[in-house]
Write a structure and sequence with these properties.
Helices cover 37% and strands 16% of the residues. The chain has 6 helices and 5 strands. Strands 2-1-5-3-4 form a 5-stranded mixed sheet, with helices on both faces.
Length: 158
């Protein structure tokens, strides 16, 4: 059953004509042309597809678009327009936490979610905050260092 679904995507109201059970990830990539969210596993294990729905970090590969109706969806593309994104990006680059880049959008969304909850996180909080995101290239120490650096640089932003 295809239907009209309204939602706010990256601060703009949109209306989609899609099946409500279609994965949000597929809607973002196929119907909206937003390619920042990646499909890594399709099972909610890797975090490459992470987006915010009404401020909550979700795996868009498991999230039916119908559940996003009348809600705010924020992707990495919408987050890129913020100072907090700039602080995170620069911190990730400086700490060497970006290599192939496949996991970076999801990892940065997870870091954003963590820093919203804990502006000055301890190492263990960072480990827990990014535990739903996998990275094959960097190892996690550089990512932890990047989040710590972003926390210091962005003091007062989160």
């Amino acid at each position: 059953m295809i239907k009209n679904i309204k939602l706010q995507l990256n601060h703009q109201e949109i209306e989609l004509y899609v099946h409500p059970l279609k994965r949000l990830l597929d809607v973002l990539r196929e119907d909206c042309g937003l390619l920042g969210s990646k499909e890594g596993c399709g099972e909610g294990e890797c975090g490459a597809c992470s987006v915010f729905v009404d401020g909550e970090l979700v795996n868009s590969c498991l999230f039916p678009v119908g559940k996003a109706e009348n809600k705010q969806v924020l992707t990495i593309e919408g987050f890129r327009d913020t100072v907090r994104y700039d602080v995170l990006r620069e911190s990730f680059e400086e700490a060497g936490a970006v290599q192939c880049g496949f996991c970076s959008p999801g990892m940065m969304m997870a870091a954003e979610g963590l820093l919203r909850r804990h502006p000055h996180p301890a190492e263990q909080q960072i480990r827990e905050g990014i535990s739903g995101n996998l990275c094959r290239c960097t190892g996690y120490n550089m990512i932890i260092d990047a989040v710590m650096l972003a926390s210091k640089r962005g003091d007062g932003l989160w």
